[in-house]
Design goal:
10 strands; single chain; five-stranded antiparallel beta sheet; globular; 167 residues
């Protein structure tokens, strides 16, 4: 299994939709959902991905980003250490567990199964958790996440400040 470190080179560049748009040129094919919400005077985005990442294998990502509302473009910064959240992830192909990431405070929880199989997003099931630190942020996230879940068939539960979802 491969995964991103806390301070990998990617963290310096933030994130915008152009990266996802260009990914097929690098033979990276995934499904993604962007959960955008306002909290604490900032625009936030928690984005989830799953699919085939060419040389990195099949896997998924959960990223946490924010930006000042005054920035008109859709370019988000990777959150600083003070805004990282505890996340976990498990990825399955059918009943087969491809990898598991234990709960860890992170800005970009990733996992990629380096295997001989090529699995596309429709073949993968991601189980993930995000532990929010404040009820207000959780509520803002859920207000944006719930309609996505209803439209896309993502199941989620909430236990205190912990959101668990299956996609």
């Amino acid at each position: 299994m491969a995964y991103a470190t806390h301070n990998g080179w990617e963290r310096r560049f933030g994130f915008n939709p152009v990266y996802d748009f260009l990914s097929p040129a690098a033979l990276i094919f995934f499904q993604t959902h962007r959960v955008k919400f306002e909290y604490g005077g900032m625009d936030w985005k928690i984005q989830i991905w799953k699919g085939n990442y060419f040389l990195a294998g099949s896997g998924g990502e959960v990223g946490i980003y924010n930006k000042p509302p005054s920035r008109p473009v859709e370019h988000y910064d990777c959150v600083g250490d003070e805004d990282m959240l505890v996340m976990s992830m498990r990825m399955f192909k059918g009943e087969q567990l491809l990898f598991e990431r234990a709960p860890e405070r992170h800005w970009w929880m990733t996992g990629f199964a380096l295997s001989d199989g090529i699995y596309f997003a429709k073949d993968l099931t991601m189980e993930s958790t995000i532990l929010f630190e404040e009820q207000g942020m959780l509520d803002a996230f859920l207000a944006a996440f719930d309609p996505i879940c209803a439209a896309e068939g993502i199941a989620y539960t909430v236990d205190g400040l912990l959101v668990s979802f299956v996609w």
